Amino acid sequence: MNDELIIAGKAYQSRLLVGTGKYKDFAETRAAIDASGAQIVTVAIRRTNIGQHADEPSLLDSLPPEEFTYLPNTAGCYSADDAVRTLRLARELLDGHKLVKLEVLGDPKTLYPNVIETIAAAKTLVKDGFDVMVYTSDDPIIAKQLEDIGCCAVMPLASLIGSGMGILNPWNLQIIIENAKVPVLVDAGVGTASDASIAMELGCAGILMNTAIAGAQNPVLMASAMRKAVEAGRDAFLAGRMSKKLYSASPSSPAAGLITG
Amino acid sequence: MHIFINGNLRQLASENVTISVLVVTLNLTGKRLAIEKNGEIVPRSQFDIVTLHDGDKLEIVGAVGGG
Q1: Contact map slice: A 89-108 vs B, CB within 8 A
Q2: Chain A residue nearest residue B32, CA to CA
Q3: Which of B6, B36, B63 has the CB atom closest to A50's CB atom?
Q4: The whole model's pTM is what?
Q5: What is the C-alpha separation between A222 and A216, in angstroms, rounded?
Q6: Quick count: other Cβ atoms within 10 Å of Cβ B56?
Q7: Cα(A41)–Cα(A23) distance, integer angstroms
């Protein structure tokens, strides 16, 4: 079955997008990403370490651009200006790369998004020619506004970044998905495989996660679990689940032919 | 002259150094990076042309792991 995720006109077979932070080393990063089957990987933009470690391997060496689509993010930005500045540097860094993840945070304790700054940054970036995948709260009105601005994907949180609390408000996610004409991906909050399946069963186009994999006791095994969970959840969504009822008057086995007497 | 690189003051031996020369000086040859000078991005194609002046503020960034 041809069931691709289309983002900004490009087709992807995997609906699992992964972050590259918090791993032990680049070898573990690479092994986990391979096990996840992800084709889109997020990267952060930071000041280069000047001096001593000239021969130090870089993240991009272990994740070559021929194999992965990079999704530079604005993690750690608390204003629209900082986010826009970061992504313009990212575009230069990655030879004109347009696909980006916008996130503007509002609070260092919760890492909850500042949607006002997010909207301002999204407007500037879209005008500037970026393909913007935007991290936001699970507010359906804001999600719609971000879509109307021209973001190519809307990515509401399932719960707070790095919390692993799972899908806290499936109803809001469902409203956002119903209203959207662009892909809706859950970004942040997934803790384990069942969370990923639940999000996909709701009709999410995909999931972006980092800590759920990198923070597992065995990240590579969890990456594999997440790949299966996303695929299972997607298939279940496409298959259409049976309706829920308190009890069933129609057993699965035939009522006739019972051995009695 | 003195310039600021990633927030740190740094002394350069000569004046009118190009970005390309600075990249070599900093042992960053061949590294994938992007450079901002006084808030403006310097495209890689202009590294040979753009020169540095006393008090310039540079940001030199790369990609690292993140979610």
Answers
A1: 89-90, 92-94
A2: A93
A3: B6
A4: 0.92
A5: 7
A6: 18
A7: 14
Cβ–Cβ < 8 Å for A160, A103: no
Give dist(CA A240, CA A234) in Å, integer. Answer: 10
Distances in Å between the alpha carbon of A214 and those of A22, A32, A97, B36, B67? 6, 8, 26, 32, 10
Among chain B residues, the shortest Cα distance to A17 is held by B67
pLDDT tens track, chain A, 261 positions: 689 999 999 999 999 999 999 999 999 999 999 999 999 999 999 999 887 666 677 888 889 989 999 999 999 999 999 999 999 999 999 999 999 999 999 999 999 999 999 999 999 999 999 999 999 999 999 999 999 999 999 999 999 998 999 999 999 999 999 999 999 999 999 999 999 999 999 999 999 999 999 999 999 999 999 999 999 999 999 999 999 989 877 888 888 888 887
In Å, what is the CA distance from B11 to each residue of A43, B4, B24, B26? 31, 9, 15, 12
Q: Is A101 designated active site?
A: yes
Mark A218-231 as b/e (b = at least 16 C-beta within 10 Å): ebbebbbbbbebbb
- Compare CB distances from B43 to A21, A50, A92 and report the shortest one's residue: A92
